[in-house]
Amino acid sequence: MAQLDLRPVRITHAPVRRSAQLLAGLALYGTSMAMMTRAHLGLAPWDVLSDGLNKLTGLSFGTLTAIIAVAVLLLWIPIRQRPGIGTVANIVVISIVVDLVRAVLPDQHVLAWQITLLAGGVVLNGVATAVYVGTRLGPGPRDGLMTGLAARTGWSVRLVRTGIEVTVLAAGWLLGGSVGVGTVFYALAIGPLAQALLPLVTWRGPEAPGTEDLPEEEPDRRCPDGAH
């Protein structure tokens, strides 16, 4: 199968369609995060960190998600990554939506409902990842850190991603974040889900005038596993 080109393309190309798709994808992503937090069966690695800090500080889940994202964005400076419109929107939209959905979605304590909410959240997260990444309007803060470190160190994207997520997961777990079967399910399912859906939603259009050049050492960035 041909490799998808996911390099960022300027917003001047199909701005209405791509902006709408970006906002929809990010809103779905925030919703999926909220669903998984209410299932109480384990969270994605970065959300484990947010959950642990939530228990430590009392700040809302969305607020902490935004704070972590901004902190990660600051790490882009030494590795010379450039944010796009999608990067900024990622921080703002996801942090707002996750708190709004959590405000109306109650905690689940019956196992059948917990499993339903977890499974639905993971699947929706895969859909959301493909939808917003497919706009090609810039990576989320965490994806940018991953690809930037891979480019600067020469290590594979897979190795860098694993190292980052294991570190984040361990830190979140030590802070009391929720780790469980949902964490494992997410890790196993999110990559294949996003990979399968990306070809269906990725924007394809005139490349030469609006495509921002990426270093040759970042080939894996053309089809990432997907993460916010």
Question: What series of H and E elements makes up the topology?
Answer: HHHHHHHH
State which percent range the strand residues make up: under 5%
What is the terminal separation in angstroms?
25 Å
Strand tally is 0
Structural class computed from helices and strand pairing: mainly alpha
List the helices and strands and how they pair.
Elements (H helix, E strand, L loop, with lengths): L14 H25 L5 H13 L3 H14 L10 H20 L6 H23 L7 H13 L3 H18 L6 H21 L27
Give a quick rundown of the structure:
The chain has helices spanning 15-39, 45-57, 61-74, 85-104, 111-133, 141-153, 157-174, 181-201.
Describe this structure in words.
The protein has 228 residues and is an all-alpha fold. 64% of the residues lie in helices and 0% in strands. It has 8 helices and no strands. The longest helix is centred in the first third of the chain and has 25 residues. The chain is globular and about 50 Å long. The relative contact order is 0.23. The C terminus is likely disordered.
Key features of this structure:
228 residues, single chain, 8 helices, disordered C terminus, mainly alpha
